[in-house]
Amino acid sequence: MDVKRDILWRVYVSFIGIALLSVFVFAKALYIQRVQGSHWRNMSDSLHQRFIPLVAERGTIYSEDGEMLSASVPTFDIYIDFNAEGLRDKKGKRFFDNVDSLSISLSSYFKDKSTAEYKKDLQAAYNKPNNRHWLLKKKLTFEDYKVLRDFPLVRLGKNKSGVIVETDSKRLTPFQLLANRTIGLSRQYVAADKTTKSQNVGLEKSYDTVLSGRDGQKLVRFIAGGTAIPIEGSETDPINGQDVFTTLDVQIQDIAENALMKMMQQCQGPYGTAIVMETATGKIKALANLGRQEDGSYWEDDNYSVRATEPGSTIKLSTLLAVLDKGSSKPDDMVEIGGAGRAQVGNKMVTDAERAPKPNMTVLECFAHSSNIGMSKLAYKAFSNRPIELKDYLHKYHLDVRSPIDFTDVPKPMMAPLDQKGSALGNLLWMSFGYGIQVSPLQILTLYNSVANNGKMMKPYLVDRIQGNGIVKKQFTPVVLEENVSKPFVIAEAKQAMEMVVTEGTARKAFKGMPFAVAGKTGTAHVSDGKIKYDHGVYQATFVGYFPADKPQYTCIVVIRTKPHDPVHFGGSLAAPVFREIATKLYPQYIKQKNATQYALVKDSTKYFYAGTTSDVKKVYQAMNIQYADSAQQSSWAVVYANNYYPVVKSNNVREQVMPNVKGLGLKDAVFLLESMGLKVSIKGRGKVSTQSIPAGTALKKGIMVILELS
């Protein structure tokens, strides 16, 4: 009886336990279904289907004539999932059979590690538990990626090799140094919150919304093997970025950059900038910014053209315009300078950097010989009773507002107050010859350009047009900031004064023997800027002017910051020679209505331009054992030009329904390319393509006729 009772007791306890467990399981299932159901269903969907972004292609930045200045090229990050079934199958037989040959291939091609090092790294990663995203190679070009795909193990495919390929893009500037800081930088970085953000400067930043376009997305469902299948009707197409065509001319930029580079390497100063502006329109044709690096080389590291500093004597143009416009002095009025190089003006002692050639000079001669004493006396005579009046003139010359150039984050100019008792008069005197006011080289250039343009001040601008799929979306045209910065006779006198600077004044030596007339102004400013103080002996040398003087077509400014206590620090010694080289090289190539043969330069035998398929071009250089800079990347077509005596192979951008640049191509290649795009070709002459009837970048329709002239 006791045994029976004991058995029944055990059965009851077990039954009650099972019943309680059943109730618990049922309650838990009900809780999961009713309360947490939405969460788990969403998680299930996220594992089996999700939205994948479709990245929009960033637009390209071009020069005005269609040369590619900045473009996006694809890059490839290679990872390995060492937990992939294909690698772990049969105790990793596939991995161990291929690891030696894979290591040999990686070492022989990339040459960054030995075979033993690659094998050691691969085996260590394989032995690490749950290693599902091991980085093998980062930022590979398409050419490198094509080679890698045929390596042992990798060629077996994703499921068997575990290789994961992630595609990204990288921004390239085919011309490297040329206008690098102006074009700017577009790169991505991972912020502290683990999100990927873009960091842009230059035009890449100013026109980021235009260039970046808008990403799309598509919904995909993952099936066995990790294959993603798009779900019909769920895709939103990306809108690719539009192309930006700048006003820059690659050849003018090259001339300005090289001229500035030679002087910077000679003087070893911390930085320099050179800007070339088209006088009639305000288009910036060249903008060079060179900063000294730690290794002594120079690179486009900052936009010095918009950096506000005390300009020195180049500001004297605004003083001259103001006093002549006010009528307080006339061009031929005599000003007593004295012979000591120092003079009392108001309650201040003013000093000339160089002794005046005579004790009494006309107003125009004071400007030509850059006399601080003379210009301060003129300003004192005109504005001593009401110094604030000078500010009205400076406002008219746009020297107290940011330059309207199409950059973001342009610094604002600064000037000492002219309305405070006790300091206004002294500030007036210092500002008359370039101190107590901070403006950018671009603002000084804009003022001088207005005089060259007969008083009409043009807005400086860098972007000519915006295109999308070869169609012009927005065309920028010249903008007039001021119809007349001063009276016509004042402009005429200012022009004469600037010509006198070159013929008899402070720039006489620099332009001796010049084959055509130029006009301008030197400037030498003693620098006090941030950590640099006046007693450090740093100067800023400037020359700004225009050419040809009788009918200006280009206005140019050159600014060079010197190293401390450099004995050669005057604008006429440092900046003027750079201006001269730029003007002399531009004149025979770009200036209209002239006798070109009179000023023709000796032809540079190092200049050349070829075009063809990328593979053929590289094969020729490799066969001849000639080194070259490769900027063509994965492009099928390329052009070759010389940069500092060194051949550069650059991609020739070819897009569907957009007219390519076929200049320099042989007839066979040109006809093949154009006919493959559905165009009809008519040919004139023999040799290589010299001109094409449809400009590069024009939107195309199949069947239209293209006329090619060969020479």
Low-confidence stretches: 593-606
What level of helicity do the residues show? 25-40%
- Domain count, please report it: 4
Number of strands: 33
General shape:
elongated
Text of the CATH class of the largest domain = Alpha Beta
If helices are DSSP runs of H or I spanning 4 or more residues, what is the number of helices?
A: 20
| Percent of residues in beta strands | 25-35%
- Estimated structural class: alpha+beta
Global Rg: 35 Å
Q: Outline the biggest β-sheet.
A: 7 strands, mixed
Q: The CATH topology of the largest domain is what? A: Beta-lactamase
What is the first-to-last residue Cα distance?
122 Å
The CATH architecture classification of the largest domain is 3-Layer(aba) Sandwich
Q: Give me the CATH superfamily of the largest domain.
A: DD-peptidase/beta-lactamase superfamily
Mean pLDDT: 83
Descriptive report:
Helix 10 (about 250-265) runs antiparallel to helix 18 and helix 11 runs parallel beside helix 13 (about 370-385). Strands 2, 3, 4, 5, 10, 21 and 22 form a seven-stranded mixed beta sheet that branches. The protein has four domains: about 1-35; about 50-240, Penicillin-binding protein 2a (Domain 2); about 250-600, DD-peptidase/beta-lactamase superfamily (Beta-lactamase), CATH 3.40.710.10; about 610-710, Trypsin Inhibitor V, Chain A (2-Layer Sandwich), CATH 3.30.10. It contains 20 helices and 33 strands.
